[in-house]
Amino acid sequence: MNELVEALTGRLTSNQKRKEDDFEKDGILYCGKCGAPRQAWIDWIPDADGKTEKRLVPIMCKCDEEEEKREKEEKAQHDFDLAMRHIRLTLYTMRDDVTATFADDTDEDNAISKTCRKYVERWEEMRKDNMGILFYGSKGTGKTFYASCIYNELLKNRILAGFTSTVNLMNVLSKWDKTDVFECIEKVRLLVLDDLGAERDTSYGAELMYSVIDARYKTGLPTIITTNLDLGEMKAETDIWRSRIYDRVIEMCPIAIPMAGESKRVNIADERKKKARELLRG
Asked: What is the model's pLDDT at position 282?
């Protein structure tokens, strides 16, 4: 066994790839860039008599360590990008719809913004305890905006996440392989379901949406849901399938955030109209 290890070590040392600027000093190979040794003498395996001797073995200098770290980082990013591309295609997520980040938030001192930022900061705890968020309220009040901010912040940290509207998801499930879609739903660490309640109002649609919510519930992973429905409406729902959906959503999303105030979309549209008029006057 010792002979085999000795032969292998000797081969590694003799076959060690030398870089252009490498140099030798006192029988040891050094890196010409960082000046650190690329070989080292170590105490070898004791022989039958218990005697040890020194053996020269390859080691990594600072340059080698940085190169290995860079290659691992590139591979991790490549694998993440491939996984995210599959998730986006499967869940039919259009990137232009979910580009908002916290950098776009013009009111970062408000309580909702602070809550969303804290959610990202405490993500690992939120994930372990399956803490989802329910953004509910009237149209244009920032529900999708803040859901997108959280989503994109997690993507920066290479957290696999999916973002889709319930309408898109219902269309995908009616046309594509359900197995692949549900695999993505169950795979992502965070799933954002935008505009719950806007999907087609049929018994089949409600059953299908319950299957989605139930599949996500069983993963024990967080889900963020936005809806124009009021929390009172959800709790008072009488339709059996929708009642089951909303009961499960409320359980999955203990962080329920009411979104009130004027429609941000209307305000933005008014500002654009005002700017257009000013430009045309000039």
From this structure: 59
